[in-house]
Amino acid sequence: VDTSNLTIAEQVSRIENEVRAEIEHLRGIRVMEGEDNPFARMRPYYRASRALVRAFFGGAFGLEVRGAEHLRFRENYIFACNHISYADPPAVGCALDREVWFLAKKELFRNRAFARLIDAYHAIPVDRDEIERRTMKRIFSVLGDGGSLLMFPEGTRSRTGELRPLKPGLGYVA
Asked: CA dist 118 to 8, 90, 112, 114, Å?
């Protein structure tokens, strides 16, 4: 909010108005409990796989999903997570209430069978060293069509759990 030419009272008033407008916007897109959210629809195979993966991660690793009520809006999201394991995309994907597209390094698409599998679960191949026009068009198409996107801003797994330097892709997409 640009308040550079306003008095203190005008600044407070401007910010209050912005906050009130945002609250009204959120009320308008809020999905109430039991109401259908078109952004959270899932194909049957995706829903079944999600339930199996969630049960596995819950039983094997104690995965708990908290705060899902904060995603009850008629809109898409960009989810950004640290990347420690190859299991991160399915672990995060099963915790979300919607189908999610995710970026996967292009090398994972070399094996045709695996490429088919991850493509069915919405993997978008990405070159981690350069921005490809085709990839960016696909990302913006997914977001423009109401899809949600999962990105790992570090661009590669961190074997130590320490946060690695972030790649610029997330900021550009956002």
From this structure: 54, 10, 10, 6
